[in-house]
Amino acid sequence: MSENATDPATETFVAHRNLLFTVAYEMLGSAADAEDVLQETWLRWVKVDLEQVRDQRAYLVRITTRQSLNRLRTMSRRKEAYVGPWLPEPLLTAPDVAEDVELAESVSMALMLVLETLSPTERAVFVLREAFDVSYDEIAAAVDKSPAAVRQIAHRARRHVEARRPREVVSASETRAALEAFRRVLETGDPQGLLDVLAPEVVLMGDGGGIKQAALRPITGADKVARLLIGGLGKNKRPVTVAPTVVNGNPALLVRLDGEIDGVMAIRLEDARITGLYYVRNPEKLSRLESETPLTLR
Fold first, then answer.
1. Mean per-residue pLDDT for 31-48?
2. Pick from 201, 192, 180, 214: which is nearest to 283 by CA?
3. What are phi and psi of 82, to 5 degrees?
4. How far is Cα 256 from Cα 243, in angstroms, rounded to an integer?
5. N or C: which end of the chain has fewer CB within 10 A?
6. What is the per-residue pLDDT across 83-110, written as a single tens digit (0 to 9) for each?
7. Beta sheet of 250-257, edge-to-edge order
């Protein structure tokens, strides 16, 4: 793809690239697939007669949405064969993403897992309307539905998400404080300290993708989660370092064994206690963390 600044098609695509990537990523939960969607969007975009396009941003979003919907249907088959829980691919994000509270929540691990429970069309409508405030008419053109049908889908998807999303929006500083307490507990191996930061109903999900060891189903309850974490640390004989980072617009922990990335731990926080732990260990979802610069998503 040429990045000749005098080419109007390239100029427009580059100007909206971060937005298009975020639309695709929020729909797919996979940065690698989102990048493929962007390539497909570009190949279609360069064939468009720009003089016939009234709103170029809306047109690009429409192409990206349609390509994402196509890919979602193929990804569903991959997920059915996936070993253990499937978690979104973690993204290193720039500080300005965390400052945009709505954007940070929309790409958070917790909310993206909720989006996994929507149908492909519901997910597309919800992402475009709630995260990017796209008009109902533009969404209708993107998903091949009438504006009236899109309004109904948006209402249904919003109600579904609201019933499952965290009850409160937690500030980045609160999340960092909880993660720091969690990190200290991991380093000391203090069982009681761990129980103090975990909510009684906490759920731990680990994603090893069948490549790295991880629980094959979610672990529920503070006692079980604490035993698993403390037991895992006790068995490990390699030097462990746990450092703060920012993924998906929210504070997280980067875990290294012998200096190599072992995984990324994100959390869901409610009432100052951890209700969700999401540990991505699948190496295929971590390869970008070493090479990528933090992303600005809009």
1. 96
2. 214
3. -70, 140
4. 8
5. N
6. 999 999 999 988 778 778 788 888 999 9
7. 219-220, 198-207, 273-280, 260-270, 250-257, 240-247
